[in-house]
Write a structure and sequence with these properties.
By secondary structure, the chain is mostly helical. The chain has helices at 16-29, 34-50, 60-72, 78-97. The longest helix is centred in the C-terminal third of the chain and has 20 residues, at 78-97. This is Core-binding (CB) domain-containing protein.
Length: 98
């Protein structure tokens, strides 16, 4: 006899901090190091501290501009650019999937 199917509704986290906490738990389950978890926290928090308006209403153009500005800010070296890109893109890709 077949059981009932129940759909589980996912609700979006109220703040980026909640989403980041869930993301870090997800990454921890994958076995990442404590240093990598700290790096994710640092880069995501730094992005939102620098661009607090991004977390407000959905504004794709403003978000994109802020992301490009953050990635290329301060005349950074290519390795720093790549690190920022990996940490932010991994977090935001996870957010869109979840």
């Amino acid at each position: 006899m077949a059981g009932r199917l129940t759909k589980v509704k996912k609700s979006a986290p109220a703040t980026y901090e909640v989403a980041l906490g869930q993301f870090v738990i997800w990454k921890k389950a994958q076995g990442i190091s404590e240093q990598t978890m700290n790096d994710y926290r640092e880069h995501v928090n730094r992005f939102f501290r620098r661009y607090p308006e991004v977390g407000k209403p959905r504004d794709a153009e403003g978000f994109e501009k802020s992301a490009y500005d953050y990635l290329g800010a301060d005349g950074i070296k290519p390795a720093t650019y790549n690190n920022r890109l990996v940490y932010l893109s991994t977090f935001f890709n996870w957010c869109t999937k979840e």
